[in-house]
Amino acid sequence: MDIIFSAKWIKSDLDSGIALETGHIFPVRPVQKGRNGVTDTGLDFTKNFTCKGGVKKAELQVTALGIYAAFLNGSRVGDFIFAPGWTSYEKRLQYQTYDVTAQLRENNSLSITLGKGWRFLGTDPETVTDGLSNRGAALLAALKILYEDGSEELIVTDRSWSVTESKIRYSNIYNGDIYDAGFVPSAPVPADEIPRGFSTLIPQQGEKIAETEILPAKELIITPKGETVIDFGQNLTGYVKFNICGKKGDKAKVYHAEVLDKDGNFYTENLRAARQEIHFICDGNPHTYKPLLSFQGFRYIRLEDWPDEVKLSDFEAVVVHSDMKRTGYFECSDKNLNQLFKNIVWGQRGNFLDVPTDCPQRDERLGWTGDAQVFCRTASYNYDTEKFFTKWLADLAADQGEDGCVKHVIPDVLNGNGGSAAWGDAVTVCPWQMYLTYGNKEILERQFESMKKWISFLQENSTSYIRTKGDHFGDWLNLDEEVGGKATDKVYIATEFSAYSTYLVVKVGKVLGVDVKEYETLYDNIVAAFRKKYIENGKVTENTQTACVLALHFNLCEDKAAVAAQLNGLIKKYGHLTTGFVGASYLPHALSDNGYAETAYDLLLRKEYPSWLYPISMGATTTWERWNGIRPDGTFNDKGMNSFNHYAYGAIADWLYGVMAGINTDENAPAFKHTIFKPLTDPRIDYVKASIDTRHGLVKSEWRREGEKTVYTFTVPPGCTATAIIDGNAREIGPGTTTL
Ligand code: BGC
Questions:
Q1: Which residues are marked as active site?
Q2: For 392-418, what is the HEC assignment?
Q3: Interval 178-210: pLDDT, tens
């Protein structure tokens, strides 16, 4: 029932809130004082009404350009945090539906707090559409009451709603809040109606965003600088809920940080311009506060001017993310690997907040396509991400250029910039992975046009099938130059991905039963051009680990043994990996698929920099953006690019599930209808167990050393089959638990 379409969009220009001096907000908006958005006051839109009789059912639909929180008679409506979520607003805007029957009384007050949320990101702030500035917030809501006598009443947003400035004097996703408990707004004014239409409205498509866990404060620390710091023991995304009581006018400040520096002092330089601060202005009464319109990425908080004795029991960290069902688990005999896996899951929780963001703390927090592309397999095993990616991929297609260019970030708030290899290829990689993990063809059907547009874009930007043109990030954050080499050529990477995306379009077309001959021919041509340009004597001419990894993993080299030996040689030469974002996720696969499982395990179990376990040895509780965000001597890497909660390198979990535990999908019977178990053991590991709660039931793999023997146990869901491959011998197994 779409009652929302009978409402009117309303907004208000009230905004006398407190201005927060901010710096340059990357990369979308240089904030200037006094400009729309600097004093981002929360607004309370209210409608009072009386029920005419006994209520049988009442349903409220709401959406906003911005973020809203609805309250009926003082209590929160629903438990959706930061509704309506983040989409490419100008094309797709979700609305939510709530059953509010139980919350209605005879005399009612429906009040909706509105803030800008993600809306402040985007294009020119001066442009006015439908009477609304491009970054202005607006509200749309409708309540339908069905009375016991069969009559109906509709209450919708329009000029009859009143508006006041809220006690949230300032709120911004990057900067945090200023809340004045004693603020008394001036008399309410009528809301302004704006002639905005409904063409972009869609019902809720993604997961709701929810508070998913509460972590108690762990430790009170007085730092060497004398700062009062609280440690929650875990880097996370969400906010702090605190109890506070101060004299009227007391102003307490709560700052958020991911790490302490090597001396144990509070460190916020890696936040860049994001402030992550909560200012609470007291009114003399006790309060419990948590932000309504902003979130922070943090493990530690620092308190300033706390009006009272600091008691740990007054502070809790509230974990907020998309409310996906947890499905994947991994455990083994190595406690460092277990911590790594735990960090990967926390990295996903911290960054799957309605869109897959790069990081949750600095002035970025954007839906970077490349990060999502490398991590989507791991993501889809750890959690049920089908709805989450269905929504985000629809935005990706909506934001795609007419020329097929896939934007760097989705929603696109970077003024249309896009087209990078390995970033834009999220367009093919993510839907295909969702199909493999969940078996639903619909996502392929929905995204197929967008995939094909990308393939045309790639060829438009190629010369004789070599992808010569484009704005590429390359093997982002690689270490090739650090070891005295040269980073992998961007055209090489782009041509590899151009082949891979075309290959996936062929596969998708076959699943959908459409003629893909054109793409098969194109694929053959790209591969031939690639080989001609980049393969000599069986080896790849780009002598980097990432170059070898891509050629092997994408099946682009004829002599795999030669390239695998080349890769193994490059690892032995440096004694470690040198790959960045693009190579790292496939690196261990390229090794173990081609006879170098031991080298893959060497890389995985290495504890020194650079490696996956190095951050663990430095106390990490989430995946870091860089291999050495904190250097061995305790100093920090470049503050401009040093997030401690970036999930991309967490894609190593693919290998933990798929090779260590050996759980693999079969593209001919996806969603684990048929599972391929192919575990690879190593003498340094005594046992491994992993499970995935699949669309068909629980798939589980376990192996353990018992004396000289290794005992394997596989669990296959009812109605499903599996092939278990051990030491090269394949065996078919049926539903239930089989021990070999
Ligand atoms: C982000 C990355 C992203 C990259 C593009 C960074 O600022 O944090 O994760 O993929 O830009 O190269």
A1: 364, 625
A2: HHHHHHHHCCCCCCCECECCCCCCCCE
A3: 999 999 998 999 999 999 999 999 999 999 999
